[in-house]
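Thread: "does anyone have the structure for this chain?"

Original post by V.I.:
We have the sequence but no experimental structure in hand. Need at least a predicted one for the grant figures.
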Amino acid sequence: MAALLRSARLLKFSSPFLLQVVDATVFGGPLCRLGTRTFSGRGIGGCPGRVLIGTGINRCVSGSGGVRLLTIAAQEKGASRDESSSAVRSRQAEQFDWALNKLDSSVRRTGRITKTQLLKIFHDMCRTGYPSGNQALLLLRSCGSLLPEIHLSERTELAHRIWGKLLELGAVYDASHYNALLKVYLQNEFKFSPTEFLAKMETANVQPNRVTYQRLIAAYCNEGDIDGASKILGFMKSKDLPITEAVFNSLVTGHARAGDMESAENILTVMKGAGIEAGPDTYLALLNAYAEKGDIDNIKQTLEKVEKTDASLMDRDLMQIVFSLAKSGHHQYVQEIAERMRHDRGYIPDAMNLCLSLITQGLEDTAFQLLKTFPTLQPESQNGDTPDLGNFFLRHCVNMDKPVEKLKRFCRELQEGGLHVSALPFTLYCALDAKKTATAVELMKVMKEEGLPVRTHYFWPLLAQHQKEKNSQGTMEVLKAMQELGVEPDVDTYTNYVLTSFDSLEIAHTKLRETGCSVETEGFAASELRSEAVNGRLESVLAMLSSPTMPAVELSTFRGSLILGFKRSQDVDTMAKITELLHRDRRFSTAPAGSTEVVGYFLYNLIDSMSDSEVQAREETLRQYFHQLKKMNIVISPNIYRGIRNLLDSYHVPELIKDVIVLVDENAKLSASDLPKGSEVKVSALESKLAELKTENKPIGETLKQLILALCAEENMPKALEVKVQHEADMVIGGYAALINLCCRHDNVEEALNLKQELDRKDSSMVLDVNKYLGLVKVLAKHSKIEDVLGILKEMKEKGVAVRDANVTSFFHILNASAMRAEEEVVRSILDALFTLGLAKPSANLCSPLVTVHLEKGDLPTALEASMDCQRKYSQMPRLHDVLCKLVENGETELLQKAMDFVSQERGEMTMLYDLFFAFMHTGKYKEARKIIETPGLRSRPGRLQWFSEKCIAANQVETLENMVEMTRKLFECDRDEMYYYLIRLCKENNDWKKAEATWMKMQEENIIPRERTLRLLADILKSNGQEVPFEVPEAWFEEAAEMEKTKGKASSTPASLPADSPVDYQRRIMALCKKNMSGEAYRILSDAESKGLALHSAAYNSLIKSLLAEGNLEDAMKVKDIAGSRIPGFTLSDTASSLLLITQVRRDNLKGALSMLKGMLQADQVPTQLAVTRLVQALGMKGDVESIQAVESMIKSLGQSINLSRMLFINNTAVAHIKNNDVDSAVQFIEPLFTPGSEGQSSGLQVSSVSFVFRKVIEERLEPALDKLSAMAERLANHFAVYRPATDLFLQFLDTGRTEDAKFLLQRCAGVGEQKEILVAYITRAAQKPGQAPKIKALLDILPDFPEKEMAYAYLMKCYGLDNDIAAAKALYQQMQEEHMQPDELCLKRLALLLKSAGEPVPFTEPPESFRFYADKLRRGSSNQPSEDD
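Reply from O.Q.:
Generated one for you, tokens below.
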């Protein structure tokens, strides 16, 4: 008791501000809001509306401050267990932060949480097994009024369950936990014995505190037990515990419930005598007392009295009066109180929670009465559409099993009052979603009575439930209901939901006939075929197809299922017989007799549905199948054959083509190119020649070398090494060099070293090609053989191997690969040797791995120190920009200051300012960047600006580059044409002619005189997009060169008039033609140069290869590559050319080749373009090749962020691949955890964004079953976890594809979609960039008439009308804005004025005089200065 008195005095004498600070670490912030937002039933229980710890009288103190000391003392009991589990507890603390934020977000937004959210957090804590005191407190406080959708008794049971389970797991409870449990009891109106409660606390050795006693007083008072309350009050006085306003509020309630209203009213006088001013909560307690008595007169008088005092009652307080009136049966007075509400901010969520509480407690009529007073339910849209609010009301009524007649009345009144467009269909959806079969069927009957359509798919959720449980009886009952409603099951219904509920088709037949369902229809027959085929029962499929009673069924209705059955079957005979039936029986096709198209397309679709690995695994089965078809005289057309041949060729099974070609109609003519190609005979020929020379005892050295080179070209390392062992005595230097290079490529380090040693023994003076040395260094470094690497480098120095710039780049890639593997010692040793031996000079690029190795570890201080050390040693600061960006992102201000001081000292203040400017620009901190670039005295540094501009272009950072161009407008000596040229280059990369045109307009506004190259580039963009060029285009030298090629040999034949036949001239002409997209002519010139034996620069070959690949000419591109390889030893394609080759292979459906190409590029330290990887992954997704997508993702990880590839590319395409494999469930299981809070996908730290791509593909492919499941997933995430991104993505895809009704229906089910302002604004902004998008924005505004950013949306809609040159629509929009008393911004008026003037119409307002850019900047500045909602 002494401890209690000490803690009580601490509470009494500590300053309230101190209490707040001490408590903040445990109960401060979001936790204080939990359990305080909504209604506490009939009991007041402490502070029903607020938890505040502030100055002055504590209206409600949350058992903290001094209680914190008790908490710490109690937790010390489990100190040993905490020490042994520190790692687990650390992770638990992180999960607690997440849970707290999640619940706090839900309370902020809606004033409630869901039972699903709470149980998920509870189960997560139980799994971990180490619940902390804070976590237990969080769960307990959430079991009260924050769960308005749950019955009071169920809430209390949940609290007891959590209490007991966490106690089992070792949670240590203190006074705060018992106080939280008391609050839950009060909110849930749970009757308990206060004396027993105190006894339990004493047994647990937990001392009660002031809050405990306050809440026990409230418990007594709720029962009208003033004597019990007085005993505790007397004890509090004897212990000198402060009596707060909350105690007096409880006494008001206690006297009122004891029937002594006079004493209840006198409490206000007692408070005044005690020096406590009655506040809003005291008046609210008195008003609730009057409400329970139905004394409306005293309620009105008290409300008028309160209005005259400093206390003010909010709408939330009036709602408690409504709740008390309704609970006490005085419904007639509810409307009078509702009319007094001011509809303050936050009214809607509070009113919704009141309605939910009323419905839960069986007072739905009162809830409906309140619902009709919602202010935002009045129709506001100009097209007459009405919003669909009240969905929460209908859903909860369904969940609470309210009678259908009552639901019908609610729906009718909502629609008649213009409050809901489709109340009945939405209520039906809620019943289906809640799996309430009886309610759903009754609602469908009501819909039919009212003339609304009842569709087949409405029954699918009911059938799916029975199908999952294999409840055939339940399935039959649903089918009977369908018959009663006159709804006929379709093919999908039978296939997906009905037949799978039965053990066999025979049982299904019998049961369906008993029900009265017809089983002789075409639809049922197709569903039977589907079901049997999908399950691989092809014998049954054959029997059904052969039956004369089988009705005519179009093959297209069951083709997909049949193909799936074929892929799972090894029964070649049955497959062939089914195919023959499809070919000969006209019941399964509408094609004319004798047509080969039915089987031909079936075979093509069969092969097309298989991945390359599947075809390779089933090659023998397919071969037998094709031979069986040949015996049955089944033929295919040449076109079908070519399609199948291309597929098989891309799958790398050319031998199978020979088995397909026999099916081609003998009367059809095939060209030579249609015939399968023979295998290469070069190796076998050389082997024969080698054996022959050996037999004749002639020298074999040269032939042996050619054979090894041929085997190396085939990458056949085992065979090449075997040949070397067999003929070791005759090996020549060239053979060793090729083998060493081959072993390096195959990462065979031991064999490569052995070969090098053998070569040294044969001829120690032999000098290898520099690329061979680099290959050795690379593989040795990879295996951390530092001594061997240093030996190779010394040999290179001793033998005078020339190291060119390209070779230095290779050294960088070798070092960078080691840095990515965190091999610091390897990097430092090799770099020191390079510089010491003089093989390379220090450069920022070559030194950068010294910093990379620390950046990869996330060790920023060491990375910064490494960069600074390089400056001291080599006068280079590698990767300074990347280090600074990381420091800015992480908010490391001290390290940032250290870096800036060092740079300023070493390189000057101006360099430091530019470094800081670029770091801010890269991280999107444009305000800070602007302050830097506007530093007085700062001059332009063209080299630095060019570097960052090129970086933006390479990463496709349009916004960043645009901002930099705009910010440098007033930079002293800044070359504005140069800056805009970079921006136009990026427009060219993106083929964005509209942005290029807008950039041209900005250049004119700045009065810039553009250079010729800028005009040519801009003209090229406009011309290639079919746009008129608004200026004269200057000619270029390469146009003259092209013209010379056209006139060559025509007008003049004198040597002086012809181009000189030098390699440089040929190179110039080839590159000029490539720039003009005349690759055919350039290829002819290369052939001419090749015939003369001229070797050109690698740039010419790379340019021509890129030009040919851009036109899809793979064959000629490969020929050019071979020519380059023969002319330039060690020639390799550039990164861009390799990426184009990869894209070409993807276009030709050679995905296996593309994968190999990508692997080869990465092994050669090449970086593929973002587009190349994207095209490959998307193609794999459309093929359903999940494993290959994962392989690509694994390969790309080594590149880090160098190609700026989004993780969503792999997520979306993996989902698409599952869907293409008819495995939608796996796609859902893959995507859903990424968005589900608390799941592994979320806890991994992965940032997921949009899944629009998946929805778009499913909609484009018209995969409705898949769309249904994905839609259900999106709705589940929205309704259960308040994760609205997937649902919003689907909503916008519906809008994008013109499926407006589907979008409306989705919005009805997930009303929160309409609140995703940022995503919706981004959609409008994006849509307004292209012509023809106005209808989409209009549709969005029609569906969301309460769109919060309507002014912004109208501005973008005006922009769309300007792009479309739609004057009538623009004028109508302006008129609508005036009618809505909306003032258009100046940019909007400027656009409208320009549009009207272009049509010769008068402008009905004063046209804004400044430029478009001026007003755009003004709007941007205005938006950046506006306070956020949180502020």
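V.I.: this helps a lot. The chain has a mean pLDDT of 79.
O.Q.: and The two ends are 46 Å apart (CA to CA).
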